[in-house]
């Protein structure tokens, strides 16, 4: 679900309930690991240049990252709900903060080393 938001704050304000809590948890990890990435609206989602995108969809929260990093994550977490470049969470129960932290740390490392981190 693409949201027509003018700012990250507006985007976050439009998300409700448990989905908002999950979105904020993932956002916090991104900001902790890569504070210099900043936060924008990109493709109708929260964007973190060089790191990825974060979106509250109709039935889940999606984290879009570099396919190369996500492929490594899928090997370590085969039961995760993943697409080619996105990791989907239907609920907080599916969110493993340490695993996501490791994924984001790898994407950050790739970005700092000049590797391609394009996801969308």
Offer a quick outline of the entry:
It is built from four helices and six strands, in the order ααββββαββα.
Kindly list the characteristics that best describe this protein.
single chain; 120 residues; alpha+beta; Aspartate Aminotransferase, domain 1; six-stranded antiparallel beta sheet; 4 helices; 6 strands
CATH architecture classification: Alpha-Beta Complex
| Integer average pLDDT | 92
Low-confidence stretches: none
CATH class identity: Alpha Beta
Distance between the termini: 15 Å
Question: In percent terms, what proportion of residues is strand?
Answer: 15-25%
Q: Estimate percent helicity.
A: 40-55%
Major pleated sheet: 6 strands, antiparallel
Q: How many separate domains?
A: 1
Q: Can you count the beta strands?
A: 6
Mass-distribution shape: globular
N to C succession of SSEs: HHEEEEHEEH
Structural class: alpha+beta
Widest sheet: strand ordering = 1-2-3-4-6-5
CATH topology: Aspartate Aminotransferase, domain 1
Rg over CA atoms? 13 Å
- Helix tally equals 4
